[in-house]
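Exercise 7. Predict the joint structure of the components listed below.
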Amino acid sequence: MRLKTCLLGLLIPSLLGGWTTAQTEPISEASEEWERIRSKAESHYEMVLLLIENKKFEEAVKNAKEIFSLPVPPEKHELLFDSAKEISDALLHHKQYESAHQVLNFCFAAVSDTTILSNLHKEKAYIFKKMGRDDEAIIHFEKSIELSKKPNS
Amino acid sequence: MGCQTYSENLSALIDGELSAAESRELQSHLAVCTPCRGEHESLLYAAETVDRLLEDRLEAPHWKVVRDELTTSKTRWNDFRWLLQPRWAAVAAVLLLLLFSVPFYWSATHPDALLAEQLVVYVNERDQLEEIHRGIMDIEPVGWVTHNPFRVTDRDSENPFSLE
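Solution:
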């Protein structure tokens, strides 16, 4: 009950268009759309971490998918990586390796920047290593190194 | 030659110091002369007794230990003496060279090994960070420690959402 109240408290402001942050910062017309997306992402992110904290991992993954489905502009894709990394770290803390992989895969589908892709491969390598699947870890680590040498797309 | 002369040569016969001809002549005399044969047998018995005594003394435990030690140490040294031969020294040098070059060869022909090494370094670094993070999370719940990348206030120092 307490969790549901908390989640509703986070979701309602985001559905209203992120007016909470709008109160503190001036928003131009050009950034209005982004502000709406950012606010949704922010709320979903908070929900994901709360769900992980309450060991509701499947729901957490579903909510994480929502973040990566948002039309985040390419120049803000770094934020998607940051959130994917933080969420996968939180899942790793609970030894939810498969869920952590799922979250990183969502991020893979959402970004195209070479540096971010390289970092994502490195994260996957880390998780595979933790799972004891060294061969797969090395494959992803190698891909990460290869991508880090390529110029940004 | 009289019994006196033969008698003087009996010790030399026992010790094997006579020539073949002298020995033959004395043996012929002993075959026919009972007193000389008796004296010869007496001397022979004395010589055998002395030999047996000497042998017993040499077989005493401490002598046996000394003898064994001398024999063993000699054998040990002989076991490795072949290493001093130049061809074996060359073989040993080649083996040492191979032994030290294996890691370099392995790295060159197995890039995966190098990657695996780098991965281990990376994982260790991450683990150290994870330890610190875990320490903080033990004090406070996860949701309130991990920063939200999408929250503007979490990026005060370098705000990517700045609308300027």
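Discussion. Confidence is low (pLDDT under 50) at residues 156-164 of chain B.
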